[in-house]
Amino acid sequence: MLVSYSWLKDYVDVLVDAKKLADDLTMSGSKVETIKSYGNEIKNVVIGKIISIEKHPDADKLQVGIVDVGEEKLQIITGAQNIKVGDYIPVALHGSTLPGGVKIKRGKLRGLESNGMMCSAKELGLDESLLPDYQRNGIFILPELPIGEDIKKVLELDDVIEFEITPNRPDCLSVVGIARETAATYRKSYRMPEIKIYEVADKNPANVTIDADDLCYRYVARVIRNAKIGPSPIWMQMRLLKAGIRPINNIVDVTNYVMMELGQPLHAFDLDKVKNRHIIVRRAKNGEKLVTLDDKERILDSEMLVIADEEKAIGLAGVMGGQNTEITDDTVNILIESANFKGSNIRYTSKKLGLRSEASSRFEKGLDPEITVMACNRAAQLMAELSGGEILNGIVDVYPKPIEEKVLSVRHKKINKLLGTNLTIGEMKNILTFLDFGVICDGENLVVKVPAFRSDIEGEADIAEEIGRMYGYNNIEDTLLKGTQITAGVKTREQKLEDLVKEVFLSCGLNEIITTSFMGMKDLDKINLPDDSPLRKAVKIMNPLGEDQGYMRTTLLPSMLNVVYTNYSRKVSDLKAFEISRVFIPKSLPLEELPVEVKTTVIGMYGHDVDFLTLKGVIEVLLDVLNVNNVKYVRSENTLYHPGRSADIIVDGECIGVFGEINPDIEENYDINREVYVAELNLELLFKHAKDDERKYKLLPKYPAVERDIAVLVDKNTFVADIESIIRETGGKLVDDVKLFDVYTGENIPEDKKSVAYSIWYRSYERTLTDEEVNKVHDKIIRKLNEKLGAQLR
Amino acid sequence: MEETLRNLLEEAKRELETVDSIKSLEELRVKYLGKKGELTKILRGMGNLSPEERPVVGKISNEVRAEIESLLAAKRDEILKVEKEEKIRSEYIDITLPGKVHEIGHKHPMTKVLDEIKDIFLGLGFSIAEGPEIELDYYNFEALNTPPDHPARDLQDTFYITKNILLRTQTSPVQVRTMEKNKPPIKVISPGRVYRSDETDATHSPVFNQIEGLAVDEGITMGDLKGVLNLFAKRLFGSDTKTKFRPHYFPFTEPSAEMDVSCFACGGKGCRVCGYSGWIEILGSGMVHPNVLRMSGIDPEKYSGFAFGMGLDRITMLSYGIDDLRLLYENDLRFIKQF
Ligand SMILES: [Zn+2]
Fold first, then answer.
1. Residue limits of the B5 domain (chain A) (predicted)?
2. Which helix (H) or strand (E) holds B175?
């Protein structure tokens, strides 16, 4: 919402500068985004009239103009071609300045003296795109104006303040609304524009029928006769221009001007094109067509509201008028529409057709039906003044269900309690009164009559906000929950475990990454996910940003591989990374209830020191720190992984994750010419098996251990885990610890064999073991290894 | 004989001076004091002495033995000391060689900032709550006083899954879920991912992170909201930080306010970071709307509360001077390792 400070001053007397006003209004609830100062750099630019134009004798593209600037007539050279004798134009005199610090001085152009510069709109800092062609291409051609007058004064080049108006305050989408806020902020009064209507005796010939009173709450209309269409005066054009609205003609400009002034969108119809001068407000027919003012054909549906006559739709209610009844240069009789529509319906229509206008963006927030008559009269007054037309006798006002006045009873104590203030009932009344609330004090209560334009006010809390913001939030004393019960801030078990997982990963050298939660089906193809994989049953987004972001991810793997690729392609030599995030597993598709969101982690690695065992080491540390027991690593059948270099992690018979080298086919799909190792773990299952909180102290050994080494030859394909479990099972309680210290193939070892060497520590917690006892067990272990695996002692 | 003994001592002293290793010292000990050594040899002649002379010579020989032993010990210490010094001298290394590092991983910068924020609020008695990212329209909008036709819905471009299921556009639905499940006093923060259909650019991402906060109890005031958030700002951005509360609008709070903090880059003088205003907008907040309390099963006559929400991505970018949001989701390790 752009508000010219001069315009604002028409309704409220303020003396502070625009910056101060912006700061103060921001703190009272009308946030200012920017201030654009149009005039402050402009000096010595005046209105001039072109008396003569001749071609420059020595330059084809230059013209020599004589310009009357009041006290003198100046010779000015210009390159512009859009000027003619008699035009009024802005002239920058010798010694003048323009926006951007440009200084204009007398000088010579191809041998002829030029005593200043004729200015374009752009050179004056105006937005040319809103101007008609004749003013845009070249010099800013103005209507007749007092010669020699300061341009800043004539064009009202002042400060324009841009407000960010929140959707609950459509009443502030008007200069009067901002004036009201300004007045309340400074505890002053404001005034409404003075409206005087001179009706002629002839009766208003138009009539209005509302066929959809659930969508149109009120329809007010007046008729102007014998209007002469032309440009509106420069002061009005300038105010519209500064508000970001394109000036069109004296009728349309008035509708926009009054909308900016009072916040009520208006529309003007060429009454002679309205069949039988009968306005009908009705739902559109499905498939009904209407060409709107922007020259586009719109296909409507029966949810949309149209303004129609007896044969055809002539406007899209609250959004845009129809071309068939547009005001043209030949228009003579005008119907002014000042109506009130249901906000959500306008919002629907505007969204569905992709057509937003200044009007629809106001209507969709819900406007005050009480202002329609005033706005209609204001427009009639201005149109009559500017077009020479006559206001016909009588105003049409169809208002089936007038809104009821809203009266709230609020408690003085409760408001102080909510705000943490000690305001008196009188102070509260004072603030509310400045905001146009009617207030009566009733003992400890305030009985508040809510003005019709404040549809956002519904209860005590809303009144508290009004009082709070005008008292000043920053005047409320800071407190630290002094009256409330003490609470302990705690993390849940899962949150603590998640922190622990992160800690383990970080200390293992993995870096944390964060990726977005979307995926495309192509991502799943890229990881060669089988067609029948349940991971392809993903939650689909109805309105995605693109196909590659069309689904909620069911696996973190593609995101990780993308990050691996990003780093690999940027020549990052080593990568160790992890992400903890959710995957989304639907219970059924299409979704009927919320999907299961599973906390999952993915690890990705490549680099000079990275192999299967590097990754397995991380997994082992993780499981150790979380005290996960009964872990088995089983060769994985997951086809996404290298068949010989991957394992499922089985805890108590349940698979909680998989890790290993990604299948080389997938490495190829991603154009990664390295071995990439990844792990995927379901954190919820991991946490289920974590016994971190069940750790108990175990007695330290009092008696010494006896260490025996053993080296055996076994088949090359034997899992060392099987050897270790035979050692442990056979040795029972006497085996305190087992450590693999060598695996060897090659010289002196048969091709199909490998040599495996262990240290075994034998220990009793009750006594010192004798050699005989140890030998007995140790021999038994050797025997068992031979029996079960054919292991030969070396 | 007495004289022979004295000469032996002198001789030992002389020879000791040339000794420079433990080995030759040991040889010397054997030569003089060993079972077949010089002293033993001399004492063998004791048999020839008269009974009167024997005790005298015996005493002297003991004295000589003791003397030699103590000289040997002293020499031994001396040699050991020199040897140790030499060893240490030989062990000098280039202490400017690079260390042997076990490289540890780096947290994502957003996690670092989030951890700090969590710590602050845990210390203030707030627990951590979580909620679903794929959420019912009811929790994301309706229960937050934003019915279907509400204009505030236009401010957030929502990703929909079905008519009633969407990707949460804010972490605020966790407020409602928390209030439904718990009785006051409630104090929680809820960090998490949120979604809005914005195209990715330097300041927008369709997926980003918010941190929601909620306190509900008897007698909570707007002064409490200001006090807690002011303290939070000082802890996170430094004790010199000033805060400013501006009225704003959120459907689920009333009164509502946005909090600005004095720019931590320029201290409020105005710079590029704060857009030359000296202030940086950090969070939205307000007193929980009575409709929201009521819909969540909490009696607004008895209880009141405040809520706030802030963008983690934005605060992270501000904290580290990161100028492009995309860096946070691109995960170039050379970026991550800076934190
Ligand atoms: Zn700054």
1. 403-478
2. helix B173-181
Q: Choose among A300, A354, A346: nearest CA to A322.
A: A300
CATH number of the domain residue B272 falls in: 3.30.930.10
- Same domain (yes/no): A146, A165: no
Q: Which pairing describes strands A199-203 and A390-393: parallel, antiparallel, or unpaired?
A: parallel
Tell me whether residue A548 is in a domain.
yes
The predicted structure's pLDDT at residue B148: 84
pLDDT of residue B156: 67
CB distance from B24 to chain A under 8 Å? no
Burial tier of A223 (Cβ tally within 10 Å: 0-12, 13-18, 19+):
buried
Q: Residues A169, A216: one domain?
A: no
Interface test with A, best of B102, B104, B117, B254 (most A CBs within 10 A): B254
Å from A173 to nearest chain B CA?
A: 15
Instruction: Calculate how close chain A gets to B94, using CA atoms only, in Å.
Output: 27
Q: Are strands A575-585 and A511-512 parallel, antiparallel or unpaired?
A: parallel
What's the CA-to-centroid distance between B116 and ligand 1, angstroms? 22
Judge: B152–A167 Cβ closer than 8 Å, yes or no.
yes
Whether A539 sits inside 8 A of B161 (CB atoms) is yes
pLDDT tens-digit readout, A555-600: 999 999 999 999 999 999 999 999 999 999 999 988 999 999 999 9
Same domain flag for A527 and A436: no
Contact between B103 and A509 using a beta-carbon 8 Å cutoff:
yes
Tell me how far the alpha carbon of residue A165 lies from the centroid of ligand 1, in angstroms: 25
> Taken in order A519, A522, A526, A529, is the CA torsion positive or negative?
positive
- What percentage of chain A's residues is helix, strand, coil (to nearest 5)? 30, 30, 40
B178-207 pLDDT, tens digit each:
999 999 999 999 999 999 999 999 999 999
Rounded CA separation A19/A3 (Å): 13
pTM: 0.88
- Kindly state the DSSP code that residue A173 receives in the 8-state scheme: S
User: Distance from B33 to chain A by nearest Cα, in Å?
Assistant: 43
For the ranges B18-27, B34-43, B93-102, the lowest mean pLDDT is seen at B34-43
The enclosing H or E element of A614 equals helix A612-625
Are A661 and A517 contained in the same domain?
yes
Instruction: Using the 3D structure, point to which of A417, A444, A475 is the last residue of a domain.
Output: A475
Residue A25 falls inside a structural domain: yes
> Is the pLDDT at B136 greater than 90, yes or no?
yes
